[in-house]
Automatic annotation (TrEMBL):
Domain Saccharopine dehydrogenase-like C-terminal as annotated: residue spans: 137-385
Membrane spanning residue stretches: none
InterPro entries associated with the record: NAD(P)-bd_dom_sf (IPR036291), Sacchrp_dh-like_C (IPR032095), Sacchrp_dh_NADP-bd (IPR005097)
Family annotation (SUPFAM superfamilies): NAD(P)-binding Rossmann-fold domains
Organism: Desulfocapsa sulfexigens (strain DSM 10523 / SB164P1)
PANTHER family cross-referenced by the UniProt entry: CARBOXYNORSPERMIDINE SYNTHASE
Saccharopine dehydrogenase NADP binding domain: residues covered: 4-133
Name used for this protein in its record: Saccharopine dehydrogenase-like oxidoreductase
Taxonomic lineage: Bacteria, Pseudomonadati, Thermodesulfobacteriota, Desulfobulbia, Desulfobulbales
Amino acid sequence: MSRVLIIGAGGVGSVVVHKCCQVPEIFSEIMLASRTREKCDAIAAQLPIAIQTARVDADQVEELVALMQSFKPDLCINVALPYQDLTIMDACLECGVNYLDTANYEPRDEAKFEYHWQWAYQERFKEAGLMALLGSGFDPGVTNVFTAWALKTQFDEIRELDIIDCNAGDHGQPFATNFNPEINIREVTAPARHWEDEQWVETPALSTSKDFDFPEGIGPRKIYLMYHEELESLTRHIPGLEKARFWMTFSDNYLRHLEVLQNIGMTSIEPVEYNGQQIIPLQFLKALLPDPGSLGPLTHGRTCIGCLIKGIKDGREKEYYVYNICDHQQCYEEVGAQAVSYTTGVPAMIGAMLMLSGVWSGHGVFNMEQLDPAPFMEKLNLHGLPWKEVIS
Ligand code: NDP
């Protein structure tokens, strides 16, 4: 029996609330709060059980503190935007509330994707006797757990890690992103970075690609090297890792649109003066693009996200691939969202469930791979994200 405060009523927030309602023995009191209260109420109206809703500006610590003091949650699930991570962590410390998120903090004026701002809270969470779980989505999140599971069950030492994220779905729109467009485009247009020979190697965005043959009939797709935040924590916490890379598929159509938008400056986060007003081109572009939440009924096909891992077991080289396949339409039928929101929201609920039931515990700030992967792997199979492994 516990009280959970969910902040953010977007695509992911909606899935988290739906999934928490499926486990009332853990999540007995739920509040959904966001900047726009109407969005919380619209989600609440779809649920099988009653939840509370509230308006909060999560950039304002005082507003968060007032809300937490009145609702008294045991845990706050932050599925607003990465910009709000630190203010929500501050409020959690002030109110004695445990914390979970799905994306690392980013300053608004720099697309940085680094954990150091949140790792700096380690001592404060430890002293307060609280737990902060960082990156409990799919990637980061399940990919970190997959890697920890591989180390626990398959390898004595992991040498190479390739995280490969494929969205083989189609929403039929000329151009749309399947999660928050501003965050998505900042991520995709940032330089690629991977770990090799104990250092980071940086290459221009989307300049390295190769074909990868995805399982279960998805088939060969072009994957592009990118930087993704879980590489930073995994290279820190998985000993002996010689190479770590993150790859994602993009359709030619997506890349063509992105190239034009970049060339004309529409993806820039530098403010420009327009009609006496400062606007940020990428934020304006977000206002024009389809709301990712609206893609749910339109998106068909599947996602396939997994880890391809090479390493040593009993002195011999070995390869291991662990992945999940998720069907967009099945997600929509279950919770009214497409698979990208679903694959993020389900692990957020599972991380919360493990914290609230005391299966995952500790004081301080944790990345997913620092905790026992076994209970998380078990819950994935039970709550909608079954995984498979190929051992060679
Ligand atoms: P959306 O843009 O759909 O939703 C974000 C929600 O946060 C909106 O309801 C928005 O309110 C709310 N919000 C924004 N600013 C504030 C604020 N200052 N105070 C209160 N609420 C605020 O994003 P998604 O649901 O797609 O993504 C949510 C999070 O999940 C992001 O951090 C994203 O990076 C992360 N993510 C993680 C993935 C993973 O695998 N780890 C994959 C995909 C996403 P309003 O509606 O009023 O704008």
